[in-house]
Design goal:
The complex is a heterodimer of chains A (about 160) and B (about 775). Chain A is an alpha+beta fold. Chain A is built from five helices and five strands. Helices cover about 35% and strands about 15% of the residues of chain A. Chain A starts with a strand and ends with a helix. Chain B is α+β, with helices and mostly antiparallel strands and about 775 residues long. The chains are: A alpha+beta (about 160), B alpha+beta (about 775).
């Protein structure tokens, strides 16, 4: 099957087996290994990508589903040598330890802020409830998301 | 006192750019054009003999090798050792493949193929026939005279009816007013490191070397095990530690390395294996389940005169490190309280269940959850406040740990308890809970506290050596080669801070290389909370010598006495003539071109100390008596940390300790079906890990009085962070309900059962 979609802002066309898992296509064919595999069943959130503005598990998504869509992976957040405010906030708030959950965590937060630039604490907790971090107690991660949200208020 | 330039400053993590952009390459991310993939077939029986393995249908196109017990060496290996010298004491029960299957999910065959999908499909096509044998699911079954022997050295460590025993003083002769008895039952849990076990091994025919990449805790242990297994000289096996996606103990042991290395060596190829979550849960190791009986002898004033503990630790199908784990749990009983009559004994026993093994804190959590509920019971029986009772029994600074025979150093149990009590508002919260409970509503409220300690080095059990090399580069930057294994919690950035602080240079000029056995001196590995304390000392010692060399060469360059050289922020100058100055770059040039001497230094530091790390946890909970659920309303961790090198990262690290402690105490359990031996929850779908929604806000109090022997005063904290959580939460639940629950995790059914029992008792 031929798919045409937008990957991290650039149009792309590929010949794929539509039933292939999106995570395998991204990691193995496109070498986008920022997409992590932690459980293979949509429970840990490490494989999160943003498809059409929504955070989805790439382990439960098939490649055929991205046809005509817009896909963002962690590799696409840094623009022109400038980190996304969320990436910078994760650094500033020391929200990264082993880092394996970080790409999925940032993308879940990104999807939240795309639709809800000023989330409440409750909304932040809910948005990342599907992303497991075993190295922290989530406090720094939540602080980073708050910082990014507050920063955008005064920005563009 | 001069203010530190880097020590104690929040600077986020090392290599954090790569982690937020997805560019960091973990072992599981490694790819190469000719990489082969290894998958293995898991047994579908709990115990039995393989009578037939039919691989004929599994030779799919792209399959390169199929391994079973029939075509692999009949050679044992030990997944827990850290050097060749440990070979003698090891239980050595594991082989790559065994004809006897000892647990449900054990590897019975492996396929190496061009893609992971082909390897997986081929595994499914392998037909295995078994002759079933009886399951062994309990200590009694394992110890029975007619029990089938799982191993050549038996089912029981040390031996049936001859428990391991370690003591100090004389418990039996202790006279007391009161004897307090308690029990602890603890279930299994999984580490849940986010990156599952991933190992890559490549045999290079050009150099005739085997390289192993593993996000592990002990590169040298892996080299020792793998090279001995393959009969290769250690110098031709290179183990590299790439970034790891969490460990918590699960990557301390060599679960996959021998198999993947064997395949790579056999096929002269590049082979990777990346576990699925299900393989991770059953095929690596779990946190030990155990049963314990605790007895204390106490005076009517609440002074604990004697402690006796019997612990039965389930090892699972292979002993692996469990005997050592048992010994360690007992050995940590003298770290917190002054009591000098301690009697510990127990067994580590094999059953036909998945292996249990190393978990963060290695016995300190177990020690706390065996002893602390008993301490709370003493408080209850004598009508003494639990904090006050502890204050009457704690070690003071510089006392001896009677079990470990090591001085506890500048350890502040009193401050931890007293400052924690004030900050938590213990009295007020306790009274408020009791007031609310008087209303007899659906929710009951309680507070709990637990105290514990841990270690910072292997002293006096092992010589506590760590080795560091620092090399000045021609642009004035520094390479620090250190066989360290950063788990993600900030070891590398701490080492950079140590070097930059001593050398007084911009930290961006310091680069730390982690463990690589080909280019670095030996090290045991990063566990036992020794990393900051032991490696930190080595880095400081090494950097001091580099600075001394720098001053000497600067003096030569400037034509002055080295005693008159001053130095600050990368500039050397002469006291007599401040105009005469030079930089590290110029020092390097003078050294190389004029003196024919490179500037580098390697030194080993020896830590002949093992300071204690007091920690307390205070919690307030609400228990829903209808549903049996526990809400943590407020909690506080207090740590005597000496000096926080990374205060920002340590907050997250302690949060992780709380998160895992909550899981151990209240939620997370891997159950094994007693009828089949099958792991009932092998994936995350029904596993109750604490997520961002459930995680309570936590308060943190760091007691920072520098430990004189520590690097800039620092002590370890990574493991002790999780040790006091479960007993404190257990105490809070029991305070809320007026119960004596000792069965962990304290899940809703356990709570409802305890409530029903209490009602029944009252009726």
């Amino acid at each position: 099957m031929k798919i045409t979609y937008t990957l991290n802002g650039a149009a792309r066309t590929d010949e794929v087996r539509p039933e292939r898992r999106l995570i395998d296509y991204l990691r193995e064919d496109l070498h986008l290994t920022g997409v992590k595999e932690g459980c293979s069943e949509g429970e840990c959130g490490a494989c999160t990508v943003i498809l059409n503005g929504k955070a989805v598990h790439s382990c439960l998504t098939l490649v055929g589903q991205i046809d005509g869509g817009e896909l963002i992976t962690i590799e696409g957040l840094e623009q022109g040598g400038k980190l996304d405010p969320l990436q910078q906030a994760f650094i500033d708030n020391s929200a990264v330890q082993c880092g394996f959950c970080t790409p999925g965590m940032i993308l879940s937060a990104k999807a939240l802020l795309m639709h809800n630039p000023h989330p409440t604490e409750e909304e932040i907790r809910r948005a990342i409830a599907g992303n497991i971090c075993r190295c922290t107690g989530y406090a720094e991660i939540r602080a980073a998301i708050r910082q990014a949200a507050e920063g955008e208020e005064g920005g563009t | 006192m001069k203010e530190f330039r880097y020590i104690g400053k929040p600077m986020s993590n090392d290599k954090v750019y790569g982690k937020v952009t997805g560019h960091t390459v973990y072992t599981s991310d490694m790819q190469s054009v000719d990489m082969l993939h290894l998958k293995y077939k898991m047994s579908e029986i709990g115990h039995g003999m393989i009578t037939k393995i039919d691989t004929s249908r599994a030779w799919l196109p792209g399959v390169r090798a199929i391994y079973t017990w029939e075509n692999t060496p009949d050679t044992y290996f030990d997944r827990g050792r850290v050097s060749n010298a440990e070979l003698a004491g090891s239980m050595n029960q594991e082989r790559l493949f065994d004809r006897e299957v000892r647990f449900y999910g054990e590897r019975v065959a492996a396929v190496v193929a061009e893609t992971a999908e082909i390897a997986q499909e081929a595994c499914q096509k392998i037909q295995v026939e078994y002759q079933p044998l009886p399951l062994i699911m309990t200590l009694e079954e394992s110890m029975a005279e007619d029990a089938p022997l799982l191993h050549h050295n038996g089912n029981i460590y040390p031996a049936p009816n001859k428990p391991f025993h370690e003591s100090c003083g004389n418990y039996e002769s202790v006279q007391s007013d009161l004897t307090v008895r308690s029990e602890t039952h603890m279930g299994r849990m999984t580490h849940l490191s986010m990156e599952t076990q991933s190992v890559r091994a490549k045999y290079d025919l050009g150099t005739e070397r085997l390289t192993v990449w593993s996000g592990c805790q002990t590169s040298y242990g892996i080299r020792s095990t793998v090279a001995d297994y393959l009969g290769l000289p250690y110098s031709r096996v290179r183990v590299i530690k790439p970034p790891m996606g969490g460990s918590f103990g699960v990557k301390q042991e060599m679960v996959l390395e021998p198999l993947v290395a064997y395949a790579a060596y056999d096929l002269k190829a590049d082979v990777i294996c990346h576990f699925t979550r299900e393989e991770q849960t059953t095929g690596t190791l779990l946190r030990h389940n155990f049963d314990a009986y605790t007895e204390t002898k106490v005076t009517k004033d609440g002074i604990i005169k004697g402690i006796k503990i019997r612990m039965n630790l389930e090892a699972g199908a292979y002993q692996t490190i469990s005997p050592s784990y048992l010994r360690t749990a007992g050995g940590k009983l003298g770290k917190t309280y002054q009591c000098s009559n301690i009697d510990f004994s127990g067994y580590s026993y094999c059953t036909t269940t998945p292996c249990n093994g190393s978990f963060r804190s290695w016995g300190a959590s177990e020690e706390a959850v065996m002893l602390e509920p008993n301490v709370n019971l003493i408080a209850e029986k004598l009508g003494i406040d639990p904090v006050e009772l502890r204050l009457r029994n704690i070690h003071e600074a510089y006392e001896m740990d009677p079990m470990h025979k090591a001085n506890i150093g500048n350890a502040h149990f009193r401050e931890v308890l007293e400052q924690g009590r004030d900050r938590f508002q213990w009295e007020k919260r306790k009274q408020d809970c009791e007031k609310k409970n008087a209303e007899n509503g659906r929710y009951r409220y309680g507070v709990g506290v637990a105290l514990c300690s841990h270690k910072t080095s292997f002293y006096p059990d092992l010589s506590e050596i760590a080795t560091c090399t620092i090399m000045l580069q021609d642009d004035g930057s520094f390479l620090v080669n250190l066989p360290v294994h950063d788990h993600g919690c900030g070891a590398t950035i701490a080492m950079r801070k140590f070097a930059a602080e001593v050398l007084d240079v911009d930290i961006r000029l310091i680069e730390v290389n982690e463990a690589d056995t080909q280019y670095m001196p030996y090290d045991y590995g990063c566990y036992g909370s020794r990393t900051i304390y032991v490696f930190g000392r080595a880095v400081i010692q090494c950097a001091q010598e580099i600075l001394r060399q720098g001053k000497e060469i600067a003096a030569s360059k400037l034509g002055v006495f080295s005693t008159s050289i001053h130095y600050a922020d990368s500039v050397f100058w002469s006291e007599q003539n401040p105009e005469k100055k030079c930089t590290w770059k110029e020092v390097w040039e003078h050294a190389i071109f004029d003196l024919q001497k490179d500037i580098y230094y390697t030194c080993s530091s020896n830590a002949a100390e093992n300071p204690g790390t007091p920690a307390a946890f205070f919690a307030e909970v609400a228990v829903d008596t209808l549903l049996g659920r526990v809400d943590i309303l407020h909690c506080l961790s207090v740590h005597d940390i000496g000096k926080a090198i990374n205060p920002d990262l340590v907050h997250g690290e302690i949060g992780s300790g709380i998160q895992q402690g909550i899981g151990w105490a209240l939620r997370e359990e891997i159950k094994i079906d007693p009828k089949t031996g099958k792991t009932l929850i092998p994936n995350l779908q029904h596993y109750e890990v604490v997520n961002a929604y459930d995680m309570p806000d936590y308060d943190l109090l760091l007691i920072e009085d520098p430990e004189p022997t520590g690097p800039f005063g620092a002590k370890g904290v990574g493991e002790v962070a999780t040790a006091p959580i479960a007993p404190a939460l257990g105490a809070a639940v029991n305070h809320a309900l007026g119960t004596h629950i000792t069965h962990y995790p304290i899940t809703p059914p356990i709570i409802l059962e305890a409530i029903a029992k209490k009602k029944g008792g009252q009726a």
